[in-house]
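quick q for whoever's on today - can somebody do inverse folding on this one?? i tried earlier but teh output was garbage lol. tokens:
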């Protein structure tokens, strides 16, 4: 529908920003670069680097093709499709289902990352993102990060103040941001 009058009529001025966890569809060609270029509101994508459902490279394609807005990509290294997903497994999912032959919890769980930890990290970034774009609060420090968290340097002086060498991710205690990547592109990039 992109480029049609009926699609243009769907625009809603109440939408100020988007957050998408492991968005599906770009992996099937459901959208194209022209459609992604039609997004003008800020976008945050959250994904696992080994997503085999939405396909991580297809999610990166969304990040690359939404050229008319500022966008962010938070990547959980070695996480799969449910990386950072805000919904927990239902309690019923923990028992092995006789019909399936496996516990449905496996659909929600990640083999590498603890779901609660991923949820907390996602909450950290989504809260800052929404504060920035819905409340107009300056949260730049939460987005102006070295892209690979492990490359960040924790450096405090004797009084506990950050030194000029300090590049560790804002809001993360020392040694707590490993396995994460955060990238930002501005409109036009």
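ok took a stab at it. sequence:
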């Amino acid at each position: 529908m992109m480029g049609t009058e009926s699609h243009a009529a769907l625009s809603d001025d109440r939408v100020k920003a988007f957050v998408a966890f492991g968005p599906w569809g770009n992996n099937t060609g459901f959208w194209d670069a022209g459609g992604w270029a039609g997004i003008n509101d800020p976008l945050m994508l959250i994904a696992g680097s080994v997503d085999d459902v939405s396909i991580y490279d297809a999610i990166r394609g969304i990040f690359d093709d939404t050229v008319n807005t500022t966008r962010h990509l938070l990547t959980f290294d070695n996480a799969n499709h449910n990386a950072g997903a805000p919904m927990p497994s239902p309690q019923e999912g923990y028992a092995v289902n006789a019909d399936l032959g496996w516990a449905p919890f496996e659909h929600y769980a990640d083999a590498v990352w603890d779901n609660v930890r991923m949820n907390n990290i996602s909450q950290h970034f989504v809260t800052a993102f929404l504060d920035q774009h819905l409340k107009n609060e300056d949260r730049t420090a939460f987005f102006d990060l070295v892209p690979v968290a492990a490359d960040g340097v924790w450096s405090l002086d004797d009084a506990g103040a950050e030194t000029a060498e300090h590049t560790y991710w804002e809001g993360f205690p020392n040694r707590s941001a490993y396995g994460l990547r955060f990238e930002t592109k501005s409109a036009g990039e």
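fwiw Residues 115-134 form the longest helix (20 residues). also The two ends are 25 Å apart (CA to CA). so keep that in mind when u check it
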